[in-house]
Amino acid sequence: MTTDALTQPADSRSMGSLLSNIFWGTSLRAKVTAGILILLVWQVGVTLFAPSFVATPIGVALAFPGVVTSKVFLIASKGTLLAVFQGLAIALVFGTVVGVAMGRMKVFDRALNFYVSGFYTMPMIALLPLLTIWFGYGGDARLATVIFAAFFSIVINVRDGARSVPPEYLEVCKAYRAKARYVWFDITVFASLPYLIAGFRLAAGRALVAAVIAEFFVSLQDGVGMFVLFNARNFNHDVAVVGVVALVAFGLMFEITMNWTTRRFFPWYRRETKAD
Amino acid sequence: MSAEAEADGQSSRIEINGVGKRYGDLQVFKDINLEFREREIVTIVGPSGCGKTTLLRCIDGLLPVNEGEIRIEGDVITQPREGVSMVFQHFGLFPWKTVRQNVGYGLKLAGAPRAEIAEKVPYYVDLVGLKGFEDAYPYQLSGGMQQRCGLARALTMEPSVLLMDEPFAAVDAQTREILQFELLKIWRMRPMTMVFVTHSIEEAVLMGDRVVVLKGRPSSVFEVIDVDLPAPRDRSTLAHPRFTEIREHVWTTLMDEVRAAEYELN
Ligand SMILES: Nc1ncnc2c1ncn2[C@@H]1O[C@H](COP(=O)(O)OP(=O)(O)OP(=O)(O)O)[C@@H](O)[C@H]1O
Ligand SMILES: [Mg+2]
């Protein structure tokens, strides 16, 4: 058992690097070939063995232009994206404040750590029935779910970051007699930025999931989740898959935006983490 | 310089009276008695781990002492004090701030008005030779440039006491020499009390009006050597016979300790 546990990480690492070589290495051709192969198997498999309403790559591709320009879809996308962005913004601000407080003051940490960890691990779907009663069957319940899903991963990461501020920075602060607000919201926040970004990434993924689940549960008309559900139930599976693809695209867009933002506004960020 | 200022120059700015410091069970130094006069440069040498950094931190008020007291201008030091600046061996620059922001940060923390910061920062950036690098981030600077940035931050506070912890340890020999003479030049323009910790005996003798040798375990002041070399100190000082003499003296004093430590290991 113990030897297994010891050897496994090494194995999985080499496995991981192998996989990443296949997918992200120079072998673009292999990647494209694999993609085409998967689509081909999907197309042929469905055509041969599945009922006609099941989505096929060609069906999805044909449905795509019509769907992404349709009013219903645009309203649904706007609803989901707005809820995710609002929720993330609120979670980011309050999560950072609470995380910094916990990281810098033992009292807060002792008082809150247990609950924050608890809520972080709790599946937010379990809370949905309650949230709908508190916030009604509408957009508010979705926003609340998103905030709830995003908040704790930001708190946990910022807390860890705030606890690991290099002692040299704090020594400089003390020597220059920095007021607490500078120590907290300048030095601590920026020194924990790598943690904050990691937490925010995690939060964004959770927020998108939360928004879609809330839309399922609340039957929110202006949501991509509901768009997918509605079309799936009406046997428009090609259209439903376009909705799913849109959700994937939202996630990728977020990643790209994050990368651009860190590069543009925190030019020192990557250099700093690389040097460590 | 007026007669009054002359007399003032002889008054002591920092008094260290019977100071001792412990980390838990480890007694770092004990019974340190020193006086640093106004506008004097005192260098401190001693073997690694003898408590030089610790002593400097105590003087700056970053660490409490366990025995005795440290006074600056008569006030007992319990926390960092206005008019005292420290240059850290670890630079202490913030990677997310540019040179301009790092240099001005001390003033900003002290609540200085924007106009004052905007006026002083370029002056000191220029003084330490970082003109043109105002918008660079620390990762874009060499070690010596980072050190100068840290020095500029301390100087913008226009301190009457400047504490420096091995400020040139991380730079190459040539840069180090340039920085030494630059610092002496800055000091001549704005004389202040300077306490300068270094590992380099040459540097200690070159820069110091007096050299303090810490020795022993726990350490204490073993010797205070007056460096009677002509001012201003420059490259020619290095060739002065008296310089060699003093350097050898400090070296022998320290070497005894190093040898003793070696025997202990064997
Ligand atoms: N925060 C601390 N807690 C416990 N012990 C410490 C701490 N800081 C320093 N020490 C110990 O105190 C002693 C003196 O440390 P200090 O850093 O002052 O030495 P130093 O003379 O500056 O050494 P160097 O020349 O290598 O910089 C060392 O033995 C060190 O291990
Ligand atoms: Mg030291």
Strand elements of chain A, count = 0
* Residues in helices of chain A, as a percent range: over 70%
Most extensive contact: A-B, 22 and 21 residues
Provide the CATH architecture of the largest domain in chain A: Orthogonal Bundle
Bound molecules: adenosine-5'-triphosphate, magnesium ion
Content-based structural category of chain A: mainly alpha
Task: Examine the secondary-structure arrangement and name the CATH architecture of the largest domain in chain B.
Answer: 3-Layer(aba) Sandwich
State the assembly state of the protein chains: heterodimer
Q: In the CATH hierarchy, what is the superfamily of the largest domain in chain B?
A: P-loop containing nucleotide triphosphate hydrolases
Provide the CATH topology of the largest domain in chain B: Rossmann fold
Look at the structure and give the CATH class of the largest domain in chain A.
Answer: Mainly Alpha
Low-confidence stretches of chain A: 1-12
The best one-word shape of chain B is: globular
Average per-residue pLDDT of chain B, rounded, comes to 86
Order of helices and strands of chain A: HHHHHHHHHHHHH
Q: Which CATH first-tier class of the largest domain in chain B would you pick?
A: Alpha Beta
In angstroms, what separates the terminal alpha carbons of chain B?
56 Å
- The strands making up the biggest β-sheet of chain B line up spatially as 6-7-8-3-9-10
How does this model look, in words?
The complex is a heterodimer of chains A (276) and B (266). The model of chain A is unreliable at 1-12 (pLDDT under 50). Chain A is elongated, with a radius of gyration of 23 Å. In chain A, helix 4 (71-104) runs parallel beside helix 7. Chain A has two domains: 3-50; 61-265, MetI-like fold (Orthogonal Bundle), CATH 1.10.3720.10. Chain A is built from 13 helices and no strands. By secondary structure, chain A is mainly α. Chain B is α/β, with parallel strands linked by helices and 266 residues long. Chain B folds into three domains: 1-35 and 60-81, no CATH class; 84-178, Rossmann fold (3-Layer(aba) Sandwich); 198-266, no CATH class. Chain B has eight helices and ten strands. In chain B, the strands form two sheets. In chain B, strands 6-7-8-3-9-10 form a six-stranded mixed sheet, sandwiched between helices. In chain B, strands 2-1-4-5 form a four-stranded antiparallel sheet. In chain B, a hairpin with a 2-residue loop joins strand 9 (210-216) and strand 10 (219-226). In chain B, helix 3 (99-109) packs across helix 4 (114-127). Chain B is globular and about 50 Å long. Chains A and B meet through helix 8, helix 9 and helix 13 of A and helix 3 of B. The complex binds adenosine-5'-triphosphate and magnesium ion.
